[in-house]
Specification:
Two copies of one chain form a homodimer.
Chain A (H helix, E strand, L loop, with lengths): L12 E5 L11 H13 L5 E2 L1 H13 L3 E9 L2 E9 L7 E7 L3 E8 L4 E9 L9 H7 L5 H23 L7 E8 L1 H8 L21 E2 L12 E4 L9 H10 L8 E5 L3 E7 L4 E7 L19 E7 L6 E5 L7 E2 L1 H13 L11 H4 L3 E4 L2 E7 L10 E4 H24 L9 E5 L1 H5 L2 H6 L11 E5 L1 H11 L4 H10 E3 L6 H10 L11 H5 L6
Parallel strand pairs in A: 2-4, 5-8, 8-10, 11-20, 13-22, 14-16, 20-21
Antiparallel strand pairs in A: 1-3, 3-4, 5-6, 6-7, 9-10, 11-12, 12-13, 14-15, 17-18, 18-19
Chain lengths: 523, 523
């Protein structure tokens, strides 16, 4: 809960040579070290950790007054974490964490060299107890449920950090700082804060600005005194992962108005520039992530990620991960498939399969239309891979919701979608989406492609920046504090927009001039 | 290690009524509380303790948004320590500690009412292991010695706090803050910091500015999150007890130049005003505290504290503690006895017993002169209480050392002792000394009596102020930082001054014009 805006920050590792004490200068050891550090770094009010103070006299003398200091110069205060002989070259690491509902990514950083060392991704172990945000919050209503979920993620992070450090020829003892970005619920579960009211009117988190903690407070198996920075949340539905994404994008520093969207089951959008920011979030449904169709699955070998349909022969061409025989299709693949089907005339503007155009790929079962995407002979499963009309309907609703959310947010400040100078696509899933395909189905607005910027795992990148460039930390709080959250009212106007967006690409084709011109390209 | 000079501080206890959350205002619980506190107190950057955050949602709702907050608004940062329903009237206490080498005093304070509740004094349990500062430091050279001494004092404080709280109908759980003042060595032992180099050239403490700690870090059995403020030291021989004394005296705020002296085995002196302060310390010997004579003892029932000798009859008149039969004499009693003996002509200006003037009270044993102070028939011990010539010689050396230290410090800034506007006598022992007697033997300079101000236990008073008036805390650090420590060079000039001061009251009687005029007063 800080508003400090100190522009500079000292490095994490500082090499020092101290003047040894004498009768002429009998400053205490702790003060001598702090004064030298203050002279070198410009920090005022440096605090020495207590345990460190106890062993400081021996360290200083054994190192003959040439030392290497590990310090945390944070807006919340400057702390000296460790002092060791200058010759001691043990690494000084930090870890950035992207704490996703489904997937967690750790990135090990060298805080001395300011470089990334390694990365490790794994499933959030809470998924085994409760698959999604809602189920996890309900799980905390049970006695011991919150402790259980917190313990699961903390232990898993500890285990995985051990692995990651071993690969880098070190140990978690080398880790002196952590920065973590996650959505509001994941942050609450990680901190052991009861999340129950996040989903209940009037939707109140326990904390939007978690305090800077120490690793020992969270049972993290890194250095006990390591500061742990948790990205703050704007609110229940706009979490620290987005704040980290904004930080990484630089949207908050630019003169031109930009939009950042994290595409997923929940669409989170922020619009603004260095002067103002407005955010909203809304349910887009799981269809965009491939979560509803029978053949939808997360990215893995054999999963279809790219699709092309020849406009004349209507032959399907696929790119699967690792070029393995197809076994399913990922979310971005579904979007691309729908876009290609539409361009090939196999879907009408309502997103309905056209039996004549689909030819032998069109099938019905129990009165439901299906499209055979891959035949049993070519698939890895030995069964046809099919997409049903309800799957497509669900995708249409999701893409319409996405577009409507974008349109509503932009309209709320009197702008149009074409006024957006840069369109950042955040998040790991977003980075897989081909903007051309997303435009074709009318999920994203029809902007020149060069205006789209794919950020990748922007949550992890933002968390990394908080460690590698601590001078940016005040910006994290500034972004949070300056962001106005727009509560999406699902009123008649919203519903009208939504209805208009439930077409491919839209009831108003003039909004998507490029779609007609999309050309077939061989993969 | 703080230089913050924030002028105000919020109270420890703040009553609040919060606006309950609604769809129109769905600020998180933690942020809602902090914002309300910030509005009420003006604090920026309030930090909520982590465990408190975990139970905050329930507390806020169970108390129907009317709460009582316990907070620590300190220059090192503002922390929220507890939140409870407004109706919960459990007391909120703090404890001030005067950590003496021999004696420890605890004072319980009500942090809500800002009043003192009770006090408890006890012997420092480290005395049993090693009686004085030197012996204790040597004890830490042994394996486990430091831990042993730290454990002794911490456990004893915990036990005594339990007693003190019981008397006040509460428990140590009601204690939310501690402030402690002690000399540099006692502070080191309390913190478990190795003090070995304090007494070895070039006399280096581990820390002169200990960090603000939490009670749990020191195993103090009060609230785990309670801030523990340790008064900083100027150096090895000018400790936090003196800083606390200066704070209490107000010397550092006054236009006029004042002097503060803590009379004891070690004489610690500070001279200055709001613009400058200079300090020194030197050995005066244990004689001033009654520590060398056979009949010297600390204040207790039957101990002689006041003495009068009729100038004509040379009859002795005593005031003993609790009016019990005399069993010994305390340090201030010895000073008074010497002053009276001198005025009655029984001591010459060299401090030697005059056989003729002492009459039957004069005795020799093994060639050493003695003065019988109390006869066996009148004493509580059934034996004569006698003072030897060596006891008196020792007293003369001590008082001469004391005076020389004062003179040297004052001369170092080009002043004379008569330029001192106010002469503060600090410390419990100092408060027992009758300035008239001290002037008579030439221990204190011959200033008008109204210039002397006896401060009592100024260390405890300063520690109490740090809790009751937190806005004074920056002054603690300012006093420390602004004080120049003068290393006393025992050179020829010092020795000349010392030799001249080894007379009663001085070789230069013009410095003590009042002494000749001292009149006998019946007790």
């Amino acid at each position: 809960m800080e508003t400090d805006t100190k522009p500079h920050a000292a490095p994490w590792v500082v090499q020092l040579e101290l003047e040894p004490p004498s009768l002429k200068d009998n400053t205490a050891d702790g003060d001598r070290l702090c004064q030298a550090l203050e002279r070198t770094t410009g920090i005022r009010g440096m605090r020495i950790d207590y345990q460190l103070l106890q062993r400081l006299p021996d360290t200083l003398r054994q190192s003959q007054w040439r030392v290497r200091c590990i310090l945390a110069d944070q807006p919340e205060g400057s702390r000296l974490l460790d002092v060791r002989p200058a010759a001691d070259r043990r690494p000084v690491w930090g870890v950035a964490v992207d704490l996703g509902t489904t997937r967690v990514v750790l990135r090990l950083l060298d805080l001395d060299q300011l470089t990334a060392i390694g990365e490790l991704a794994f499933d959030n172990p809470q998924t085994a107890v409760a698959p999604d945000v809602l189920a996890r919050i309900h799980h905390t209503d049970r006695s011991g449920g919150l402790d259980q979920l917190q313990g699961l993620i903390v232990r898993e992070i500890n285990t995985r950090l051990g692995e990651l450090c071993r690969i880098a020829d070190g140990s978690p003892d080398n880790i002196w700082a952590m920065a973590l970005a996650g959505n509001t619920t994941m942050t609450h579960l990680f901190l052991g804060l009861p999340p129950g009211r996040i989903i209940r009117e009037p939707y109140i988190p326990v904390a939007n600005r978690p305090p800077l903690l120490q690793a020992s407070q969270l049972n993290l198996a890194i250095q006990a005194v390591a500061p742990v920075r948790i990205f703050p949340n704007v609110g229940s539905y706009f979490g620290g992962d987005l704040i980290a994404g904004i930080l990484y994008s630089g949207l908050h520093t630019r003169e031109e108005t930009a939009l950042l969207v994290d595409v997923g089951t929940n669409a989170e959008v922020i619009l603004g520039n260095r002067n103002w920011m407005i955010a909203c979030a809304g349910a887009a449904g799981p269809a965009l992530e491939g979560g509803v169709s029978k053949i939808g699955m997360p990215a893995a070998p054999g999963v279809i990620e790219r699709v092309r349909i020849h406009p004349d022969t209507r032959a399907f061409e696929f790119k699967t991960i690792d070029d393995q025989p197809p076994r399913g299709i990922c979310g971005s693949g579904v979007i691309e498939l729908a876009a290609e089907l539409f361009k090939a005339g196999m879907l009408d503007i309502r997103g309905k399969l056209m039996p004549a155009e689909c030819g032998p790929r069109f099938q019905t079962a129990n009165g439901i239309s299906h499209l055979r995407v891959v035949t049993a002979e070519r698939s890895a499963t030995g069964r046809d891979l099919t997409l049903s009309q309800p799957d497509l309907d669900s995708l249409i609703r999701s893409k319409a919701a996405m577009y409507t959310i974008l349109e509503t947010l932009v309209a709320s400040v009197g702008l149009g979608l074409t006024d957006i100078d840069t369109f950042y696509v955040a998040g790991t899933f977003g980075s897989l989406i081909d903007p051309t395909a997303a435009i074709t189905i009318g999920m994203l607005p029809d902007l020149p492609l060069e205006r789209f910027q794919v950020l990748g795992n922007s949550s992890l990148e933002g968390a990394s920046q908080a460690l590698l460039q601590p001078r940016l930390i005040p910006a994290i709080h500034a972004i949070r504090d300056q962001t106005t959250y727009l509560e999406l009212n699902v009123n008649q106007e919203f519903m009208n927009r939504f209805s208009a967006a439930k077409f491919l690409p839209h009831t108003d084709p003039d909004r998507f001039p490029s779609v007609r011109g999309n050309k077939y390209k061989v993969l």
